[in-house]
Amino acid sequence: MKFISILLFPFALLYDLATRFRNHLYNIGYKRSFEFEVNTIAVGNLSVGGTGKSPMIEYLIRLLKDDFKVATLSRGYGRTTKGFRLAGEEDNAITLGDEPFQFYRKFKEQIRVAVGAERALAIPFMLAENDDIEVILLDDAYQHRSVKAGVNILLTDYSRLFYKDCILPSGRLRESGNGAKRADVIIVTKCPHNLGESDMKSIKIQLEKYNANAPIFFTGIQYGNLKPCFKTGNPIEMPNKLYLFTGVANPRPLHNHLKDQFILTDEKIFADHHQYSESDIRKLADEIKKDHSGMTGLVTTEKDMVKFLKRDFRNILENLPVYYVPIETCFLQDGKLFDDLILKSIRQYSN
Question: pLDDT tens for residues 247-299?
């Protein structure tokens, strides 16, 4: 891998120059960033792949939804629809994309969920249809500089800290570490729950080289108990063996969590945002049927689970022991400080 990274380094230099030039055009005002008369909070990262953006968006939803009219705006990666779309009862993971449909399914009438690749064009549509919206959470919008967010939250995965990475295609960074200067808050995600103060301090020292002003927080993943993907009339006995399948960027933390509690018989790892086919689903169902004791279950992520609600897949899986693992973001320390920071920024804007 190191040899390939070195081989691709000249292309990474060109990519770096292109992203620096683009950012420079925004910095000098040649390319315009639009501001809107509504609170906007952007959540994103410098790298490709998963850093825990969806759990952080959900954390913010829970923090804000009881006191403010909240909406989420995502690109809707992998959806079959085009343009702006406001989530409704007729939608699914295919029409909205995985994460937006997950937000809609979990929070329904408590928030508004929309998708639109061009955020600066989508926000006016959102406000026209819902003029009571007070806060818009911009999902994966750190590089989407056509909207000037009120708060920019930068996430970096503990196991893939951006300052240890390289620019695409030599590494996984969408832009150089200099992009961290735009952050109002930096959060190190997916940390081990026993992360020590000395390790936190070492990471903070490195991050402060890129942004000395943004407060830095550390979060971990809080896994919930297994939940059945389908509600059936028959009580489901919890399996003691699991076959794990996922279509997320980094399934390793989930793998490690499950193997501490269950016997993992095997796993099938698909690419991030994988669009499951009927053939995929039938093969997974066949794996379960091999165990005639009935004590092996299929398990996946909540993000993958929402794709199986379509009728064709449901007909194959709903009478089988298929589970998902819900997750939430939890702060290792200073969670109230983060909450207060977000609430203060919203109230200051509103006043």
Answer: 988 888 899 999 998 999 999 999 888 889 999 999 999 988 887 666 789 99
Q: Would you state the torsion angle of the CA atoms of residues 280, 276, 143, 140, taken in this order, to the nearest 10 degrees?
A: -110
Q: Which CATH architecture has domain 2-68+134-221+331-350?
A: 3-Layer(aba) Sandwich (3.40)
CATH 3.40.190 fits 227-325, yes or no: no
pTM above threshold 0.85 = yes
**Length of the chain in residues, anyone?**
351
The predicted pLDDT at position 1 comes to 54
Give one DSSP letter per residue of 296-320, joined into a string.
EEEEEEHHHHGGGGSHHHHHHHTTS
Kindly report, as residue ranges, where domains of CATH 3.40.50 are found in the chain: 2-68+134-221+331-350, 227-325
Residue with tokens 């939804």: 65
pLDDT tens readout for residues 50-64: 889 999 999 999 999
Q: How many helices (H) and strands (E) in the chain?
A: 12, 14
**Which residues make Cβ contacts (< 8 Å) with residue 257, sequence separation at least 6?**
221, 223, 325
Give start and end residues of each alpha helix (H) in the chain. 2-7, 9-27, 53-64, 93-96, 98-107, 119-129, 197-207, 252-259, 278-289, 302-305, 311-317, 335-350
Q: Are 72 and 136 in contact (CB under 8 A)?
A: yes
Residue 309, number of CB atoms within 10 A of its CB: 16
Rounded to whole angstroms, the Cα distance separating 241 from 260 reads 12
How much is the CA Rg of the chain, to the nearest whole Å?
Answer: 21
